[in-house]
């Protein structure tokens, strides 16, 4: 699952169409749109709004295995030549606190990279900027996301809309700008998903076998944990599945003594 | 994922000659300037295993804690003033049993370029006592010689100082120092394990054959080397594999060229083992019969494994040169 965060609806709109996201009408606090693979929250402008929206979204919808967070939005730049380009952010400076946040960029990607400075207000003077790009959400997003995600699961992509002059920035202009980059962003998202896929040791069937056996033997929480680890170690060490445990499903357990005996019997086959 | 796709450089050392030399070797890497290495290295929630696959580099200045007292879990060879130091945090090798996993919050490699400050600190210490200093515990320094030249600098430093310096390595990189005069107070220690153990546990390390070749080069220069057979890792056919391995090693290395041999079974501080298990519960290191004894996570039969290997080694090397790790005897020294 990818969690997308944009400050403005105009930044979100092209994603909603492209990924065919549906609005969550039950959510009264934020505009949230989702499908099976992506969930987008419109956070509102500013680092505090961004942090609140990240925390609320992840608290409400939960984090799935192998998911990651992406903050996308338009940004200003000191340099006119950066206008219209998309940048993956490799360093975020909070202009207020001067704290520095460094995303863990581990993937090979096709974007240019830049640093980013997050301000509490729109920036019109380049001399105020330490970084090449400026926005109003980055540091808030990063700090909130880093409470939930590993460092390599947090990304910021910034599309330069202006060189601090705000010239020609309208809702339609933003939508058009984003639409032009959607394919590249989609490729990036697919690449991230592939790069960090984790393999599970047990198949779904094996997980069910371990659970069923634990239920049948009425194992305590601690015994379940011991059985799980014994199965894991057996599978890794012997390079064999644990399907044979089905053979123990018929064991009758009516009291604690019988449970202990049955448990030891099962474990002896896993050592 | 590429290694060193990003190099993070502390502003304070961006003009240091070594920084410039290292950066020149990676013209395609993205350079990100930072204030302190901790901004990258100490970030919350870093994933060690993922970072290892795409390890990046941090170039920094060491500002304090240049030396550490030697760990109780490391062989001190009877030296009371045992210290270790490190110009580099983390390693390019990926040994599955390594205690560095979970020791630091990050798997990225940190190179502290201000060697001169390390030397200044050690000079102060050796005025008062003779120390035994191991310089390659938090990394394999010789493996990174092409990048840093640190091993050479340490040897040159030791040649005019009264201290005993140990350089531990798994690398086959001794030829990088071939032109250098190695003084008698510098000990090269090669970690050797059977090839099946290397295949299973020591990703990206040189083969046993390559290590032995490197050792032969060192011996041909008149060096008496240390052999570290640790961590002794259990595997099926243990006795056959280890006796064959010991035979292979000592058919290559004459006894007179061996300064000493140390043997120690796989062991980790209990808390460290927990952290590693959290990172990778499916690691093979947890899949054999292990136990926590005196706050140390090790094999239940660790002593048996050590003793077996020691007896095999003693067939080729006099017993007074063989050190078997024994925590209880050592604890009185600290």
Describe it for me?
The complex is a heterodimer of chains A (271) and B (334). Chain A is 39% helix and 21% strand. Chain A is of the alpha/beta class. In chain A, helix 1 crosses helix 4 and helix 2 runs parallel beside helix 3 (138-148). The radius of gyration of chain A is 25 Å and the shape is elongated. Chain A starts with a strand and ends with a helix. With 334 residues, chain B is of the alpha/beta class. Helix content of chain B is 32%, strand content 22%. The longest helix of chain B has 15 residues, at 238-252. Chain B is globular. At the A-B interface, strand 7 and helix 6 of A face strand 2 and helix 3 of B.
Throw out a few tags for this protein:
heterodimer, A: 271 residues, alpha/beta, Rossmann fold, 2 domains, five-stranded mixed beta barrel, 39% helix, elongated, B: 334 residues, pyruvate-formate lyase- activating enzyme, eight-stranded mixed sheet, five-stranded mixed sheet, 12 helices, 18 strands, globular
